[in-house]
Write a structure and sequence with these properties.
With 121 residues, the protein is of the alpha+beta class. The chain has one domain: GMP Synthetase, Chain A, domain 3. The protein is built from 5 helices and 3 strands; from the N terminus they run ααββαβαα. The longest helix has 13 residues. The protein is elongated and about 60 Å long. The relative contact order is 0.18.
């Protein structure tokens, strides 16, 4: 996964997929921003979606474009959803993974009752 330029990461840290906004998890922490490239003041941003059926995709794309275009030296931004890579939970930042608490695959939990009891505490 290529590292995002710091300026882009800062600019997009306040953009949220509405499904994660209440938890304060930005599109950067979700790992939705695949790349940001700039050439002669024109930025190209590639985004992944958690689902191809995301009802908020247009909103997120617009907000990402607006935030990037607000940055010094950027006169235009193009934001594209890429379909050649699937978003997976390994793209989450450690903080996002903690906040979302994804469950392990059932085959990895030999004693389900003990797992549930441990997680209740």
């Amino acid at each position: 996964m290529p590292e995002l330029p710091q300026w882009a990461s800062r600019a997009l840290s306040g953009v949220y997929d509405p499904c994660c906004k209440e938890k304060g998890i930005s599109v950067v922490e979700m790992g939705l921003v695949r790349s940001v490239e700039v050439n002669e003041g024109r930025a190209r941003v590639e985004l992944l979606l958690t689902s191809g059926w995301c009802p908020f995709a247009a909103r997120v794309l617009t907000e990402v474009r607006e935030r990037i275009e607000e940055q010094p030296g950027i006169r235009e931004a193009e934001v594209e959803v890429v379909w050649d890579e699937v978003w997976t939970v390994d793209r989450l930042s450690p903080r996002a993974a903690r906040l979302l608490r994804f469950l392990p695959p059932p085959a990895e939990v030999p004693d389900k009752a003990a797992y549930v009891e441990r997680e209740r505490r």
